[in-house]
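Re: [ENG-882] Designed sequences occasionally contain unexpected residues at chain ends

Forwarding the minimal case from QA. Structure tokens:
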């Protein structure tokens, strides 16, 4: 039997100190557009049932189900470790993704402000950063993001899975509501911060038909770029998602599961580079065509956002010597 899912849990969240001595994770996947990412938190209270990062909690001795949502590892030294990484002469300035695994603006960030303090480090060193989140809380940091944007150092991506607030409430229960995410797009764009929308993940048979409406709404609020990712169900995510789907949407479950298998070559998941993000077959192709057509209609992705490394500086190098 699949473990109790995010939408059912009644247990309180516990926080643990992650005493890691490094903060930048290196990525070698050819279909992910960044080499380094930063994650101040491990596990995520948002509780998105489809989250591909859930199996990473099993490496810590926790479960991919309720433990992933309720046992959160916090890296209190993240800002200091980031400074140390940028101070190393071996560091070559480049775009760092914030975050590559769990959401940097999950609920704990309201009090802990680790993401905000790390953004201050990015600004201090003038190193470019790409932010992705589902949470309106990102709007809290507009002051820092505006300073980064003035130097072409930041691009913010807001993920929107669905416009249906009721579906969002049961599928991603502790994220910001879809309307609030669109409000974040509007606030960021109005503040001069390059902002895009990720229609992610696209779930065939459930949310794929919403893509045009999401892109239209985001563009109307100032988004300039867009992307999409097909849902991925690696490892323990598959049984968790299937159990949730049959319980939460019993009348639609069979159709959705059939569509998922169709875009994954008969399987529920596909780890192969090149197809794991977009799927394969006629349904996957139609989703891709719909995305491209809609982006063209609403003038999204007309200009590529290029972040700059030319401003990078090490403050310590500017300090005068003692002698």
């Amino acid at each position: 039997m699949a473990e109790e899912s995010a939408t059912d849990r009644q247990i309180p969240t516990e926080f643990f100190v992650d005493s890691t001595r490094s903060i930048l994770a290196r990525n070698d996947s050819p279909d992910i557009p960044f080499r380094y990412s930063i994650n101040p938190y491990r596990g995520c209270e948002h509780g998105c049932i489809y989250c591909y990062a859930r199996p990473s909690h099993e490496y810590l001795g926790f479960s991919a189900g309720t433990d992933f949502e309720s046992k959160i590892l916090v890296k209190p030294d993240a800002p200091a470790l980031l400074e140390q990484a940028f101070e190393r002469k071996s560091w070559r300035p480049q775009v760092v993704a914030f975050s590559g695994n769990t959401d940097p603006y999950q609920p704990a960030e309201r009090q802990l402000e680790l993401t905000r303090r790390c953004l201050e480090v990015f600004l201090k060193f003038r190193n470019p950063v790409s932010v992705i989140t589902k949470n309106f809380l990102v709007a809290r940091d507009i002051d820092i993001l505006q300073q980064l944007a003035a130097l072409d150092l930041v691009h913010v991506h807001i993920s929107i899975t669905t416009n249906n607030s009721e579906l969002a409430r049961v599928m991603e229960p502790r994220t910001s509501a879809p309307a609030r995410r669109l409000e974040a797009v509007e606030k960021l764009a109005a503040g001069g911060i390059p902002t895009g929308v990720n229609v992610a993940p696209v779930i065939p048979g459930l949310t794929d038909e919403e893509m045009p409406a999401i892109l239209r709404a985001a563009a109307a609020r100032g988004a300039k770029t867009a992307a999409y990712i097909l849902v991925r169900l690696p490892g323990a995510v598959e049984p968790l998602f299937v159990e949730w789907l049959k319980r939460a949407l019993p009348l639609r479950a069979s159709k959705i599961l059939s569509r998922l298998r169709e875009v994954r070559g008969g399987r529920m998941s596909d780890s192969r580079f090149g197809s794991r993000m977009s799927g394969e077959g006629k349904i996957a192709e139609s989703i891709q065509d719909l995305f491209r057509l809609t982006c063209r209609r609403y003038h999204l992705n007309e200009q590529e956002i290029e972040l700059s490394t030319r401003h990078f500086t090490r403050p310590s190098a500017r300090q005068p010597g003692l002698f």
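QA comment: On inspection the terminal residues look reasonable. The two ends are 69 Å apart (CA to CA). Proposing we downgrade this to a documentation issue.
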